[in-house]
Amino acid sequence: MIKDKKVYMELAKLLCEEFQKKQGAALLANLTKRNMDALDVSKEKILSEIREELLSYQDEDGNPLTEEEKELVLDLVRKDIWGYGIIDDLIHDKEISDIKLYNAGNVQIKRLGKRGGCDITFEDDKDYNRFITKILERNKVNLGTANAIQTFTDSDQSDFILRITVLSAIVADSKMTLMAIRKIPKEKYTLLDLKKAGMFGDTMP
Questions:
Q1: What average pLDDT does range 168-195 have in this prediction?
Q2: What's the rounded Cα separation, in Å, for the pair 73 and 8?
Q3: Which pLDDT tens digit goes with each residue over 107-117?
Q4: How many other C-beta atoms can be found within 10 angstroms of the C-beta atom of residue 87?
Q5: pLDDT digits 0-9 by tens, 79-126
Q6: Residue 204 and residue 39: Cα distance in Å, rounded?
Q7: What is the pTM of this model?
Q8: 81 neighbors 134 (Cβ within 8 angstroms)
Q9: What single string gives the DSSP state of each residue in the chain?
Q10: Cα–Cα distance, 182 to 176 (Å, whole number)
Q11: What is the mean pLDDT of residues 192-199?
Q12: How confident is the prediction for the chain on average, in pLDDT?
């Protein structure tokens, strides 16, 4: 039975950390960038091994995880290793065009042309910085005094090309690293899609 999702997020995080220790940062840095056809095999092997590990986990009542619970944890693992972790659903939401991360407790989005907050927060500053570092390493981007503002592109997602700009904590007023993500759909929207998104007035036929 599915309980508080945070329980499964913690388990997925633990499994990802164990995987990272076993494989090393070098492999993780190349998981989504090059030789994707070959890495897809590795991906399935990794998930198969993690599924095997889940057999040894039990809930607080001593019961083994159900298939539904295993699939939930594996989905969270996929998002953490190959996707964008807790903001992965925002990345693939067709109604959202922009995502801005200001700090652990402030994630802003632009949905259907309107800016606003969302209910997603990181655990703490350490968790937030870990996320930022992972995205930078995955995309082979260095952030430092000489290059405090970096813009790069992630074209590996199935539905969107991501234009990402990162502002180092060194120059940010908040002293936190900031990240802005502009989503460019790989499949161009039709006029009807744009109308539904509120981009036209009621006068459009």
A1: 87
A2: 6
A3: 999 999 899 99
A4: 23
A5: 988 899 999 999 999 999 999 999 999 999 999 989 999 999 999 999
A6: 46
A7: 0.78
A8: no
A9: ----HHHHHHHHHHHHHHHHHHH-HHHHTTSSSS-HHHHHHHHHHHHHHHHHHHTT-B-TTSPBPPHHHHHHHHHHHHHHHTS-GGGHHHHT-TTEEEEEEEETTEEEEEETTEEEE-S---SSHHHHHHHHHHHHHHTT---SSTT-EEEEEE--SSSEEEEEEEE-TTT-TTSS-EEEEEEEESSPPPHHHHHHTT-S-TT--
A10: 20
A11: 63
A12: 84
Token digits of residue 57:
């986990």
Tokens of 153: 């592109």
Tokens of 188: 């161009």
User: Tokens 């030789």 sit at which residue?
Assistant: 35
What is the length of the chain?
A: 205
The single-letter code of the amino acid at 120 is I
